[in-house]
Amino acid sequence: MKNSSDLSSWDFKVLEDNDEFIEYQGIEHPKNKMKAYKLFPGLMLMYIDLKEKYQVQASDSKGRKGYRISYCYEGNYFTYINDTKILITREIFIGKALPYAKESHTTKDRVQAFNFFIFEKSIDKNSFYGKILVKFLEKINSIKDMGFVYKNETLIQSANDLILALKNGDILKISIKALDLIYDITMEKTSEIRKSYHKEKNSEKIILIEEFIKENLDKNINLDMLSKKFEISKSNLNNKFIRKFQYTPIKYLNNLRMMRAEEILMTTNKNITEISMELGLNNPSNFTRSFKNFTGLSPSEYRKKRHL
After folding, report:
1. What are the chain's domains?
2. Does the CA dihedral 70-74-78-84 come out positive or negative?
3. What is the pLDDT of residues 244-288, one digit of tens each?
4. Could you tell me whether strands 43-50 and 84-88 are parallel, antiparallel, or unpaired per DSSP bridges?
């Protein structure tokens, strides 16, 4: 049996393992680092700091079953929870822990993110921190594979404050900010429909629609067009796509466009209008607004920051 800290199938090796944290370094890409903080019994926080593009297939590190809270401060990455493809970006993602995944990959070099892992059986439910975690678990106890996301200013600010504490390595502040974020999440309203996930049968059409979206980022795609092209009602398309790929098809399309925009900004000198047109967006102002919403930076700020 493998040691619970072994992440070699994720392309990481242990550098240090003590009472407070486990520090990891990339095997194939040594500039990639992770640090798992053992905050409280039943609560672990993984700080992800990747400086090189990352991709692994079929990790065999199954770990313990539980729940996760994930957030990307910079960059984004795809992973799987069972058969559901999940995008982690500048939204607070709540889902199953299940470290096993058939694939995980970043879309670019630089990624800063965190993952909470919460294991109910190990929590001291009579402690102060334990009461917060129990309340969180009561809130999300109906969660299924696909999970759900939150995005509002309060939660994003809490997540950014936690990232700053993680950058500084201040364990006391990390613990406080971690509990602050989890408590804030328990105060949010969540639609029971949004938390639901049902195993889809005959999802081949939805997979074809995702492939079509990925291959046509420059086209004028909308819900009406997808509905007619693939002969599926708009409501059915939205519901099935959310269950398979976490977002509505149009939100998914926008996310892919913004990831492509990040790449263009980093590798070319194209201006905002050119990038906007290349991505099938006729209004540069709308593109700029969407990009800032996705990355937290305007296109010009993003380009300047990446070239510092």
Report:
1. 8-195 (2.60.120.10), 204-306 (1.10.10.60)
2. positive
3. 887 899 999 999 999 899 889 988 999 999 999 999 998 899 999
4. unpaired
